[in-house]
Design brief:
34-stranded mixed sheet, about 700 residues, alpha+beta, about 40% strand
Length: about 700
């Protein structure tokens, strides 16, 4: 009963509540409509200060609209129009504005501002300019918003329809020393689809080198949707063409992203010269690699390509820190000898077309000089460091069979060391340590080159030697130190010793031609035989003492089964002149031995063999005179060798001892060798004074 009695009172209580809800809803809708109406009528122009303050608070950047401003619902989409809008850059940037545009006219999906990804139904952007800059430390950039450390980069919204006309972008990276000014092609899209590509063209400067760039965004729709950014770009700088392709997480970020790269041009040294790195000049090159940037390191892996007629593969890491550092491991299957010319200062193109003499002259060397006078790039060598490990399987050469080159290079603050530098030559091995220290002035240069025992037949086979019958070997060492900023100058001031020893063996020189010297004729003049059988060599030494760039024979002494060959004279690294004389004295009595010296003169580039020396001509004249005055047999007396040559002790010879230490087999000091002279006598006339050669010794 109580329940039934209370029931009629429930209805009157609910009616006021329904009135309140209805009135509230009407009031809210009326307010919204009123706001919409006010905004629609006024176009929301009065909200410009509010908009500027709101966006500035969200981005921590000053925002200003200098022209017309509209912000209203039209009818259910938010319309935003702003003329001459600017967004400020951080204070450290080189330009005051990150972004400016003559016009932004867009329609925004209202709920996308609250839920999910922002969406624009339409965008009309005209005369936009974007400034993208990194700090020198590469810790932040202009497009990262918020005052907090790191912040968040700007994210593009989804855009259903867009027209972008007259846009430009400027990019600066102080760490890479890159400045680029880019123009973006007109972009038109419908249904959130832009098309196949968006093109970009521009110019710029990288480390004071101008360049041009052309790029294409291959996935503009994915880019707009915050997806993949497939980019293909080509840059031209300093006669080089560089292609880059890859998928970027954002348009201005290549961090830890694998990129396909390819570089080609007339000279790889011009390419690396852009970043301040010096390498020897190359012929035309074409090299591809995979690039990954990680912090200040740029790693090029899977590298493969060619330079000139040679191949190259390996990896390279460039560290762009306070000092640029290169770390590389390279391999070459076959190196053309012409492509190796730049390593000693020659222009390989000139070598290939006109020869080494012309290439040396192009470096400033005097006429007919062989050694280049190209100066070391001292200033540049002191600005970067490098480590290189390079192995070369074989060298393509007409004469010298070189293979298995293993080079370790270390450049640190101007001191370049090639140590060790080893290679195989004619079944022998050469080990060397070369140091070019540009820190003292002029540069301090040292050469230490060691030749292990090498078969002579194999070594000279490239010059026409018939190996059969030649069993002799040769080993040697050259230790020189000089001062100068080029190879020529360092050798022209050098001091040290050069020595090559020959243990016992045989030598057969039929049909040999060594450069322009007929070696076969030379040896025939030494032995006065037709060389129908090999010559038995007991031991031999060809050594020079070098002072102030001039090498004097100390000694030249070869002991054979029938003769003792001695030499005098020397050569000059200063002028590259050669002045050597060789004489063979028989151990037994013989006729027609031709004791007079056989000379080698001329220069490194054009040596000359004096197979008929003035002394031999005078002997021939004496013989002719005797033939006229006496019986015909008397004519041969001028060519008689009494056979008094003393056999050499091989111990000092094989130890590469100096002339003063040489002995006969009886232990007596030799009187037929010495620095700068062949003997104490010349023919039958005693010498009052040792003859100088090259005007020095």
């Amino acid at each position: 009963m109580d329940v039934a009695r209370d029931t009629p009172t429930a209805a009157p209580v609910s009616r006021p509540r329904r009135h309140i809800v209805r009135n509230t809803l009407i009031g809210v809708l009326g307010t919204i409509f009123a706001i919409w109406l006010v905004l629609f009528i006024t176009k929301g122009r009065f909200l410009k200060p509010v908009f500027e303050r709101f966006v500035a608070g969200q981005t921590d950047r000053k925002v200003a609209v200098a022209g017309d401003f509209q912000l209203y619902f039209a009818p259910l989409r938010i319309k935003l129009l702003a003329e001459r809008i600017t967004v400020a850059n951080p204070a450290w940037a080189t330009r005051p504005e990150l972004f400016r545009a003559d016009l932004i006219d867009t329609r925004i999906a209202p709920l996308s501002l609250i839920f999910g990804k922002r969406r624009l139904y339409g965008l009309d952007l005209r005369g936009a300019a974007l400034d993208l800059e990194w700090t020198p430390s590469h810790s932040t950039n202009t497009w990262t918003f918020s005052g907090k450390k790191g912040g968040e980069p700007f994210a593009l919204p989804r855009i259903d329809r867009a027209t972008v006309v007259g846009s430009t972008a400027r990019y600066i990276d102080p760490q890479l020393q890159v400045l680029a000014d880019l123009k973006i092609d007109t972009i038109r899209s419908t249904d959130a689809r832009i098309g196949d590509t968006v093109g970009v063209q521009g110019t710029g400067i990288v480390r004071r080198t101008p360049f041009t760039v052309t790029a294409r965004l291959l996935s503009p729709n994915e880019t707009v949707a915050r997806g993949q950014n497939k980019l293909v770009a080509q840059m031209r700088a300093a006669n080089n063409v560089i292609d880059i392709a890859g998928t970027l997480p954002s348009l201005a970020d290549i961090e830890n992203v694998p990129l396909r790269t390819r570089a080609r041009g007339r000279d790889m040294s011009e390419l690396l010269g852009i970043i301040g790195v010096v390498i020897p000049q190359t012929r035309r090159y074409d090299v591809a690699a995979r690039l990954v940037k990680s912090g200040d390191r740029y790693r090029f892996t899977n590298m493969a390509g060619r330079f000139g007629q040679s191949d190259v593969a390996g990896r390279l890491t460039i560290t762009n820190a306070a000092r640029i550092h290169l770390d590389s491991v390279l391999t070459t299957r076959r190196l053309d000898i012409v492509d190796a010319a730049p390593f000693i200062g020659y222009n390989p193109d000139i070598v290939a077309a006109r020869g080494t003499v012309a290439a040396a002259a192009a470096t400033g060397a005097a006429p007919q000089r062989l050694m280049p006078d190209a100066e070391f790039p001292v200033a540049t060598m002191q600005r970067f460091d490098a480590d290189l490990k390079w192995t070369i399987a074989a060298v393509r050469s007409r004469n010298v069979p070189v293979s298995n080159i293993d080079m370790t290079l270390d450049l640190e603050r101007g001191r370049l060391a090639l140590s060790p530098l080893t290679f195989s030559m004619a079944r022998g091995n050469v080990a060397s340590d070369l140091v070019f220290d540009t820190r003292p002035r002029p540069s301090a240069v040292s050469y230490d080159i060691r030749l292990s025992p090498t078969p002579l037949g194999r070594l000279l086979a490239g010059y026409g030697l018939i190996e059969s019958g030649t069993t002799g070997t040769i080993k040697g060492r050259a230790q020189l130190a000089g001062r100068g900023d080029s190879i020529h100058r360092s050798l022209a001031t050098s001091r040290g010793r050069i020595a090559f020893t020959m243990p016992g063996g045989t030598l057969w020189t039929r049909n040999v031609q060594l450069a322009e010297l007929d070696l076969g004729t030379f040896v025939q003049k030494m032995f006065e035989e037709k060389l129908k059988k090999p010559v038995q060599v007991n031991c031999g030494l060809i050594a020079f003492t070098v002072r102030d760039g001039v090498a004097a024979a100390d000694p030249i002494l070869i002991d054979t089964s029938k003769n003792v060959i001695a030499g005098r004279g020397g050569f000059s690294f200063k002028t590259e002149a050669v002045d050597l004389a060789f004489r063979a004295d028989g151990k037994k009595f013989s006729l027609f031995s031709g004791q007079s010296p056989v000379g080698i003169g001329g220069y490194f580039a054009s040596p000359r063999l004096d197979v008929i020396s003035p002394q031999l001509l005078s002997r021939a004249g004496a013989g002719l005179g005797l033939a006229l005055l006496a019986t015909p047999p008397a004519a041969v007396l001028a060519f008689v060798d009494v056979g008094n040559a003393k056999s050499a002790a091989c111990g000092p010879i094989l130890a590469a001892a100096t002339a003063r230490a040489q002995r006969t087999t009886k232990g007596e000091p030799r009187d037929d060798v010495g620095r700068g002279t062949i003997s104490k006598t010349d023919g039958d006339k005693p010498q009052a004074k040792r003859k100088k050669f090259l005007g020095i010794f």
